[in-house]
């Protein structure tokens, strides 16, 4: 679990700048990544439909069971989804993004429904929000379909995902009503790892890769302790010790993966 | 003006001399002292410091304890990710490397612009030491977590427990490791914290931090010093022992045990909120009675026309008619035999955080006290202070106790905490 040795980075200044034509080699992994994102958005659209229908049918228990798994595909592709801020906010924003928190009429999307399900315990007043969520994810799928994936954004997405976890998820802020945060962590790790898996072979420094892979493995090991059925136990079960460890792993991955773009010659 | 006490006189006579040297020190703690030396808690004087001030990180003791307190300070507390002695050694070595770099200054290494810069850049491309000190403290939780460390826990290092007036917030307490950053400017301590976070993300997880400052006063005539004021408007530090008196410091500050902790020091950190609105509505006589000193000069109330350097004569005031028996200074240091034993060096900073839910200022004192014995120092004083009238105006909300290991030398392979690692026995003992 080493961070990038300073010396290795310093070498980078003296060695010729990272290969300029590297970007050419990235065509194939970018295409593959696009495929990954498309698969996930398709799943997202389908699963969101099932979820929002349960909400609208007033089937609170079913909707609760579908909430976390549905979010998984969104969390995997979050860096791409975030390119469309006008959709990311209504789909995934949290109450504290709004001045009046839960009472704010602008507060919609997954977390508004989460609030209805776990805190308000009813759904009849949020059917319009459920419809809006469904149409927002469909719109997202359409836009992603037409998107030319910018390589720097794709590769940079790995550290963005880790930053997200470090900045607002490790604290258990994301799914505060349902306590399904560990599902989201898992989605974020999956999404970041996919990027490393696809682009890693184009990175020259194999020690760097080994260290990154090692940290992903450790994070998985830690999360695995909290698996239950198809998913994870409540965030509250996460011990302080494991939260500390995950924090350190996530911060280290965020620092290391922040160099991925540069290592692939992407500005 | 009345007579100055012996230690203050000695201090002023000692102007320009290096502070806090000791038999093992590699040199004066302050390699390039500013124009005039100062008592540890004297108010920093405008124009007397410069961004090129350099306080050597090397010596028998860590700097940031007996070295003069600059205008800015911060305590940051971390959880340490450490499983084996080798992990701990790696953490300490890497931390030392950062401290060596940050306190000496110089050009920041540049990397390929396609990469994130190695440095936050907030101080520009060339770092200036700016009087920076980084002082390491180890918390009891670190020693408790691992069997291989338990036997090496400093004898008096315990977990902070709540005193009667405390309202401790768990998110502001304890930690495996504390770093105290002090420098002339706030940017320098923030830069240093960010550097450490960026370079050791795999081993240090930030728990809490509190920064503060002390007011810089206009330049004073040579030899004139006054203690800096806290947020209650009183001079704070007048009663401090004289840090230029090495023999005294050996007794007050430095642990003298035959184990790895020798020449280290115990650190008590308390984040103490001040109810400043309430305080500002309190009559001056009441304020002064609570502390036992005058507000303007800091003179003890038994010599109100004197100076802050005057020593109160409690024997002549047994009923507390002048300096109330329950005044802060009389309880904190009764200046009897017990008081002599119960010395500590206070090196606090004022903090100002924002506004509370009730619309009051969230201000207070980042209280930092150093001592050779936590029991005889902070714990004894706080126990005597329990129930003091000042409590109506203060509320301790956080902090922790830490042990600052002895210092390290400029030898290339030396590092902070080596004595502990040697004691654990992982690495062969150096001679
Ligand atoms: C917000 C909290 C506090 C404030 C505002 C405060 C303020 C002061 C002031 C104004 C003085 C007089 C000047 C001086 O001698 O330095 C003083 C002295 C002193 N304080 Fe505090 N203090 C606080 C907390 C504490 C705590 C927690 C302790 C220790 C447990 C402590 C120990 C002392 C000692 C030992 C002295 C010197 C007494 C002497 O030698 O005459 N103080 N403090
Ligand atoms: Cu999210």
UniProtKB/TrEMBL annotation, chain A:
Keyword presence, Ribosomal protein: no
Origin: domain of life: Bacteria
Where is this protein chiefly located?
A: other
Keyword annotations:
Signal
Ranges where the Imelysin-like domain occurs: 30-260
Q: Which residues, if any, are the signal sequence? A: 1-19
The terms describing its cellular component in GO are:
cell envelope
What compartments host this protein?
Answer: Cell envelope
The UniProt entry, under Pfam families, shows: Peptidase_M75 (PF09375)
User: Could you say which protein family the record assigns here?
Assistant: Belongs to the EfeM/EfeO family.
Q: What is the protein name given in its UniProt record?
A: Iron uptake system component EfeO
- Species name: Rhodobacter maris
Automatic annotation (TrEMBL), chain B:
UniProt xrefs under SUPFAM superfamilies = Dimeric alpha+beta barrel
| Positions bound to protoporphyrin IX | 293
Cofactor(s) demanded: heme b
EC assignment: the record states: 1.11.1.-
- Its domain of life reads Bacteria
Q: A Gene Ontology biological process annotation?
A: iron import into cell
Which residues does the UniProt record annotate as the domain Dyp-type peroxidase N-terminal? 62-212
Quote the Pfam families the UniProt record gives. Answer: Dyp_perox_C, Dyp_perox_N
Q: What is its main location?
A: other
Instruction: Outline the segment boundaries, as ranges, of region: Disordered.
Output: 44-64
- KW Iron (keyword) present: yes
InterPro entries in the cross-refs: Dimeric_a/b-barrel, Dyp_perox_C, Dyp_perox_N, Dyp_peroxidase, EfeB/EfeN, TAT_signal
Name the enzyme group at the top EC level: oxidoreductase
GO MF term (any one): heme binding
- Is this entry keyworded Kinase? no
Bound cofactor: record note = Binds 1 heme b (iron(II)-protoporphyrin IX) group non-covalently per subunit.
Q: What does this protein do?
A: Involved in the recovery of exogenous heme iron. Extracts iron from heme while preserving the protoporphyrin ring intact.
Record family assignment = Belongs to the DyP-type peroxidase family. EfeB subfamily.
This chain's protein is named Deferrochelatase
Supply the source organism's classification.
Answer: Bacteria, Pseudomonadati, Pseudomonadota, Alphaproteobacteria, Rhodobacterales
């Amino acid at each position: 679990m080493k961070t990038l040795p300073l010396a290795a980075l310093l070498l980078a200044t003296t060695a010729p700048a990272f290969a300029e034509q590297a970007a050419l080699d990235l065509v194939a992994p970018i295409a593959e990544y696009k495929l990954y994102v498309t698969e996930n958005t398709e799943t997202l659209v389908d699963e969101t439909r099932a979820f929002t229908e349960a909400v609208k049918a007033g089937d609170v228990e079913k909707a609760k069971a579908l909430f976390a798994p549905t979010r998984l595909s969104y969390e995997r592709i979050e860096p791409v989804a975030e390119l469309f801020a006008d959709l990311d906010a209504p789909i995934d924003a949290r109450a504290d993004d709004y001045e009046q928190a839960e009472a704010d009429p602008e507060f919609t999307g997954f977390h508004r429904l989460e609030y209805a399900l776990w805190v308000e315990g009813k759904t009849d007043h949020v059917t319009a929000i459920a419809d809006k969520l469904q149409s927002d994810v469909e719109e997202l799928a359409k836009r992603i379909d037409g998107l030319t994936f910018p390589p720097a954004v794709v590769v940079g997405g790995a550290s963005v995902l880790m930053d997200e976890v470090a900045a607002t998820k490790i604290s258990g802020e994301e799914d505060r009503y349902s306590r399904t945060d560990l599902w989201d962590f898992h989605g974020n790790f999956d999404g970041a790892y996919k990027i490393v898996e696809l682009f890693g072979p184009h990175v020259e420094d194999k020690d760097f890769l080994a260290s990154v892979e090692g940290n992903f493995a450790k994070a998985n090991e830690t999360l695995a302790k909290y698996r239950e059925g198809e998913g994870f136990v409540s965030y509250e079960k996460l011990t302080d010790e494991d939260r500390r460890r995950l924090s350190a792993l996530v911060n280290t991955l965020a620092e290391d993966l922040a160099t991925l773009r540069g290592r692939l010659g992407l500005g | 003006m009345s007579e100055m006490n012996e230690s203050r006189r000695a201090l002023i006579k000692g102007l320009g001399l290096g502070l806090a040297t000791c038999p093992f020190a590699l040199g004066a703690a302050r390699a390039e002292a500013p124009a005039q030396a100062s008592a540890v808690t004297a108010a920093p004087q405008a124009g007397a410091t410069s961004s090129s001030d350099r306080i050597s990180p090397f010596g028998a003791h860590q700097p940031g304890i007996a070295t003069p307190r600059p205008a800015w300070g911060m305590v940051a507390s971390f959880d340490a990710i450490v499983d084996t002695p080798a992990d701990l050694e790696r953490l300490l070595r890497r931390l030392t490397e950062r401290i060596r770099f940050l306190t000496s200054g110089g050009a920041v290494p540049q990397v390929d612009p396609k990469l994130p810069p190695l440095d936050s850049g907030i101080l520009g491309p060339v770092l200036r030491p700016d009087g920076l000190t980084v002082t390491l403290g180890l918390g009891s939780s670190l020693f408790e977590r691992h069997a291989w460390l338990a036997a090496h826990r400093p004898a008096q290092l315990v977990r902070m427990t709540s005193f009667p007036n405390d309202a401790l917030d768990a998110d502001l307490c304890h930690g495996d490791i504390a770093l105290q950053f002090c420098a002339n400017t706030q940017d320098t301590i923030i830069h240093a914290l960010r550097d450490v976070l960026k370079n050791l993300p795999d081993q240090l997880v930030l728990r809490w931090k509190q920064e503060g400052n002390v007011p810089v006063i206009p330049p004073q005539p040579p030899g004139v010093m006054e203690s800096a004021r806290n947020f209650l408007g009183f001079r704070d530090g007048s009663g401090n022992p004289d840090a230029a008196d090495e023999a005294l410091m050996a007794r007050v500050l430095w642990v003298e045990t035959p184990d790895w902790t020798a020449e280290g020091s115990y650190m008590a950190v308390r984040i103490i909120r001040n109810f400043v609105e309430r305080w500002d509505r309190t009559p001056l006589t009441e304020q002064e009675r609570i502390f036992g000193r005058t507000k303007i000069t800091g003179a003890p109330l038994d010599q109100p026309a004197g100076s802050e350097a005057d020593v109160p004569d409690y024997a002549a005031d047994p009923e507390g008619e002048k300096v109330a028996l329950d005044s802060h200074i009389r309880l904190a240091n009764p200046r009897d035999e017990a008081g002599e034993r119960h010395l500590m060096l206070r090196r606090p900073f004022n903090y100002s955080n924002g506004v509370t839910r009730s619309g009051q200022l969230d201000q207070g004192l980042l209280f930092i006290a150093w001592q050779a014995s936590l029991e005889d120092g902070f714990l004894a004083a706080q126990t005597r202070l329990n129930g003091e009238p000042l409590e109506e105006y203060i509320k301790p909300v956080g902090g922790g106790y830490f042990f600052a290991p002895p210092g390290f030398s400029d030898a290339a392979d030396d590092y902070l905490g080596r004595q502990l690692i040697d004691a654990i026995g992982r690495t062969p003992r150096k001679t």
